[in-house]
Structure formats: structure tokens, C-alpha cells
Amino acid sequence: MASATAHMGMLYPTPRGGYGTKQYNGRIHAFIGYKDSAWNMRFPCGGYAPGPVTNMKAGQRVNVRFFAPGMKDKDIKTQPKLTSPDRQFSQARHGGGLCEFSLSTDGGKTYHLIGRYTKTCPDVYYEWPVKIPDNAPSCTEKNSCLFVWSWTANILPQYYHNCADIHLTGVKGGKLSNKSIQIVDFPGHRQGVTAPGDGIKDKASTGPNPKEVAKNLNGTF
Q1: Which terminus of the chain, N or C, has fewer Cβ atoms within 10 Å?
Q2: What tens digit of pLDDT does each residue of 164-218 get?
Q3: Looking at the 3D structure of the chain, how many domains does it have?
Q4: Cis omega (within 30 of 0) on the bond before 13?
């Protein structure tokens, strides 16, 4: 299972198949298209069934966190700190890339972009804040409402897609952006696609770009 455990997954909000869930099988941090004797990572959401529900509301800041197999329980419960460049988790960031965050109200058929980080994302040593749009509509239908992280890696043409089930309390008459997410690198979509990275490979990055943080928290999308 070394090839699957060498990647990255979303930790918070808790995704389908995520760490600590009943479905957790050590594959949540594998890319779409990964297969072994126990699992086949499929689009959307890695093929996992609905999981724990996280309550969210319009205008809320969501501090997304990531998970790497080298993390210990204490580092999962509390945001880990980078104390030394020589002592880091093996997190296989693949040079960073493009992280996109979106909402789906139809179980993963369509996506509404709400945040984006480039080059330095993902990285377990940082929180990656995004904002549920102020004018987001409510979404309460079971198994249909999703908070989604997708990642197009830099060094390898691999695409990752984690989905957290949510209960979204929104505003009457609210509407989400029509901007969608990039979907690549598995059958039926463009192949061989990578995204610009930070050149740091699998070491800790410099974290979220402050300008991108501001844009994501302003609800620009």
C-alpha cells in the first residue's frame, strides 16, 4: 500500500472515507484512478459512500486541514508546527499544485468554486482558509450537499478529489457561483495535466499566499 499512502488527503472537514471514519481504509489520500486489491479510487469522492455530516452556514470561514500518513494522532488533533526543516512528515506534496474548493448541491454532479490556492497547496503544516459565500443557499438534502477539495498535482499528472458531507444553512434566494473546478487526469477528461508548483517537492511549503487568503475570504468566487 506504499504508493497510496504516499499522498495527501483532506482532514477537515472530515471527508467520505477520511481518517477516523468507519470507511477509512488508508486510501483517502490516493489519486483518482488508483487501484489495488482492496479499493478503486473513483470520481467523484473517491467512490466512498456518504460519511459524517459537518454543519456549515453562509458566510462561515472554513479552515481546511490536510492529512498525511506520517502524522501521529496528536498531530491530527492539533495543528502541527514545523519546528525544524530536518524533521518533517513525509507528506508527498508532489511540489504542490492547484487546490480548488467547491460546493456541490447535487451529490457531485456539478461544482461551484468557492476558493483556490496555487503552487504551495496542499501542506499539512498550515490551515487553508476559504469562505462559504455570504449568499449561499441552504442545502439540507441528505447525501447531496458536499464541501469538496480537488488537487491537480505539480510533479505528476495526478488528480485528487475528497468530499465532505455537509448540512448548509444558507440565505433565502441565495445563489452560488457558476464557476466550476478543473477535472483532469482520468478517463473521459484531459490527460497528462499538471499545475504550476512551488519547486519544493515533498518538503514543507511557505504556506498560503496572503493575497490568495484575502481573495478566498472575500468571497470573490
Answers
A1: N
A2: 999 999 999 999 999 999 999 999 999 999 999 998 888 899 999 999 999 999 9
A3: 1
A4: yes
